[in-house]
């Protein structure tokens, strides 16, 4: 149960060249479309977004990358804390720099941030998670997510990172099953 508690504070926060370092992910899953026995089925990619606690629009889970963890561990932790999902990191999407409108601090006086973003294939959706009372989850198609994304840098991570890696598009055809 100890892993269902959110970390707080910034005493272990990483900084590099005036940037506060963050880690996050684009959680995704495949939803089956048309599963008739003996016919080919398709799987549609959906991504998970969460509401912002400070205004309109949706976000991908992200947060501080701390000195006692890797970027990968931080991304997995943030997915569990903010979105209540667990899964496997399957691809590094890149680093995305942006300026925080709310966080200017001694180590990053300009509010500069750089986020390491990953694709996280979701294999568990938790009923209870640390920020459940603050967050609502939404599974969206890629076009819906692009439209709903609150921050330009997150939209870039989706369009230039996730979609370029997931080049096949948003729908996959699965060969028909011989046995049902």
Automatic annotation (TrEMBL):
The keyword Hydrolase applies. GO terms for cellular component: cytoplasm; nucleus. Keywords: Hydrolase, Magnesium, Metal-binding. Residues 18-162 form the Nudix hydrolase domain. PANTHER family: DIPHOSPHOINOSITOL POLYPHOSPHATE PHOSPHOHYDROLASE, DIPHOSPHOINOSITOL-POLYPHOSPHATE DIPHOSPHATASE. Its cofactor is Mg(2+). It comes from the Eukaryota. InterPro entries: DDP-like_NUDIX (IPR047198), NUDIX_hydrolase-like_dom_sf (IPR015797), NUDIX_hydrolase_CS (IPR020084), NUDIX_hydrolase_dom (IPR000086). CDD domains: NUDIX_DIPP2_like_Nudt4. This is Nudix hydrolase 16, mitochondrial-like. GO terms for molecular function: metal ion binding; pyrophosphatase activity. Belongs to the Nudix hydrolase family. It comes from Dorcoceras hygrometricum. SUPFAM superfamilies: Nudix.
């Amino acid at each position: 149960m100890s892993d269902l508690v959110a970390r707080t504070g910034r005493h272990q926060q990483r900084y590099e060249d005036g940037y506060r370092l963050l880690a996050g992910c684009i959680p995704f899953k495949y939803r089956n479309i048309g599963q008739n026995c003996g016919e080919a089925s398709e799987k549609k990619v959906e991504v998970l977004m969460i509401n912002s606690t400070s205004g309109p629009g949706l976000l991908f889970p992200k947060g501080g990358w701390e000195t006692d963890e890797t970027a990968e561990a931080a991304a997995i932790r943030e997915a569990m804390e903010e979105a209540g999902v667990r899964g496997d990191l399957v691809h590094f999407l890149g680093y995305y720099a942006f300026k925080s409108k709310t966080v200017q601090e001694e180590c990053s006086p300009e509010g500069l941030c750089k986020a390491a973003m990953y694709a996280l294939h979701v294999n568990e959706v938790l009923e209870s998670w640390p920020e459940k009372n603050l967050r609502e989850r939404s599974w969206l198609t890629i076009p819906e997510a692009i439209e709903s994304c609150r921050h330009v840098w997150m939209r870039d991570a989706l369009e230039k990172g996730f979609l370029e890696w997931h080049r096949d598009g948003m729908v996959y055809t699965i060969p028909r099953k011989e046995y049902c």
